[in-house]
Specification:
Among the domains are: 37-117 and 254-327, Periplasmic binding protein-like II (D-Maltodextrin-Binding Protein, domain 2, 3-Layer(aba) Sandwich), CATH 3.40.190.10; 355-453, no CATH class. 53% of the residues lie in helices and 13% in strands. The protein has 14 helices and twelve strands. Helix 12 packs parallel to helix 14 and helix 13 (381-404) runs antiparallel to helix 14.
């Protein structure tokens, strides 16, 4: 008996364990979705450029919240977009207007926000200031590295002015090299797309032998090139002491964009936007305060998390919990959903088991009632004995149920046995009464027979 109960106990634990595994599996399916990553990869740009500087600032701020950023130097915007398509990086800085230069039919690249203006600076040497890019025809010039945003915008503008960007006099050089050759007189012009804070720009603006081209027909340019925004740079804006620039100029500026892979975790997108707000929100000498981060100037389909953030603000979960805790949200979701499933299950399974036991006892009592009625209606000992035999069979059938009954339901077992014993006792008394009455009648009938026949 003890061994059988031990086996039943082990079986119950196996059932409980199997149910727990099932609940966790169901909870894991319902809480599908990866946890926020511990590390991301950010494509920046040329060494010493503003993308690299801003990348370092993002890296430092993300590190404080527990998200490690690994910076990857590249040739520039088009190179960054291609790396995103190949899955080599998670996030990248790119120049507005360069997205159409890569094929992305599956929509694997998503925009996070425009973060600041990065003007096009066209410096040239010798003689009076030029009024149009068409005057650069035949001159030796540099238009940035291959696959860079500078090369992309410079090539488009040169074509619009009838100049072939593939001509032999046009070189693809990094910014630092282009600056050196321009200062040495080995180049007659150079294109740079970068922030006003870039040392290359500030150094060239201070040279009296170099001129900065002003795009006076800004309305025409922005009509033809929607990604470009005209910026009026007043005299002395960048440096009052040195009076840089030396006169009012109009620049064309694409927006620097923060973009990512479409699969980037929404919590990472939110953290990137929080950093962008801290770095770019206050504005600068050319960026108005609170202008960035923004969806304006973004020519790439917006990431859903960025859309929600820029429209409604930060998600409540990210606002309440630090990133280090958010990384455990999947585990928390599994635990919460497991509890939500397990608690009703724990209440339902015993109730179901109890209902099954009650149902079997109801059947036993229905059968016991039928036997009791037969015994009550019996008129001779033979009928009572048949009823007692049926009661014995009923008790025998109930024995397996009584043996498997848990301790908490033993009261039902003893109630059943007491009621069966009660019916048996009544039947035994009735049988005894019927047998006594029949014996008395037989004795009475036996004593009267001789008198009748005598």
């Amino acid at each position: 008996m003890h061994y059988g109960r031990l086996l039943r106990g082990r079986r119950r634990w196996w059932i409980v364990g199997a149910l727990a595994v099932l609940v966790i599996a169901v909870a894991g399916a319902l809480a599908s979705g990866p946890s926020p990553p511990r590390t991301i990869t950010i494509a920046t740009g040329q060494h010493g450029g503003m993308y690299e500087q801003f990348g370092a600032a993002y890296e430092a701020r993300l590190e404080r919240i527990g998200l490690r950023a690994r910076l990857v130097p590249t040739s520039g915007s088009v190179d960054n977009l291609r790396r995103l398509l190949r899955g080599e990086v998670d996030v990248a800085f790119v120049q507005g207007g360069t997205y159409p230069l890569v094929a992305d039919p599956e929509g694997r690249i998503r925009g996070i926000a425009a973060v600041y203006y990065e003007p096009l600076w066209v410096f040239h040497g010798g003689g009076p200031a030029l009024r149009s890019l068409s005057e650069l025809a035949g001159r030796r010039m540099a238009i940035g590295l291959p696959a860079s945003g500078t090369e992309a915008i410079a090539s488009a503008l040169l074509r619009a002015h009838g100049i072939d960007p593939a001509a032999r006099n046009i070189e693809r050089l990094p910014n630092e090299m282009a600056r050196e050759r321009l200062e040495q007189g080995r180049l007659e012009a150079a294109f740079f797309v970068t922030s006003y804070g870039d040392p290359v720009v500030l150094g060239l603006l201070g040279r009296p032998d170099l001129q900065l081209l002003s795009f006076d027909r800004d309305g025409a340019y922005t009509r033809k090139f929607p990604a470009l925004t005209p910026l009026k740079l007043a005299e002395g804006t960048l440096d009052l002491r040195r009076n840089l620039p030396a006169e009012d100029v109009t620049l064309l500026a694409p927006a620097a964009l923060l973009v990512c892979r479409s699969t980037l975790h929404p919590r990472v997108v939110e953290e990137l936007l929080k950093v962008a707000q801290a770095l770019h929100g206050p504005g600068s000498l050319i960026d108005p305060p609170l202008r960035f981060p923004s969806r304006e100037g973004l020519d790439i389909p917006l990431h859903e998390a960025a859309d929600v953030y820029l429209t409604h603000g930060q998600a409540a979960l990210s606002r309440m919990l630090p990133y280090a805790v958010l990384r455990w949200t999947l585990v928390v979701r599994v635990l919460v959903i497991s509890l939500l499933i397990w608690i009703p299950l724990v209440r339902f399974v015993p109730a179901l088991h109890g209902w099954r036991i009650d149902r079997r006892f109801h059947r036993l009592y229905a059968s016991l009632r039928d036997v009791d009625r037969r015994l009550t209606a019996a008129r001779d000992p033979g009928e009572v004995e048949a009823g007692l035999a049926a009661l014995d069979r009923l008790c025998l059938e109930s024995q397996p149920l009584c043996d498997k009954m848990p301790d908490a339901r033993q009261r039902d077992v003893y109630d059943w046995r007491m009621h069966a014993a009660f019916v048996r006792a009544q039947a035994a008394a009735r049988l005894a009464a019927l047998e006594t009455g029949e014996a008395a009648w037989m004795r009475g009938a036996g004593s009267e027979l001789p008198a009748r026949h005598g």
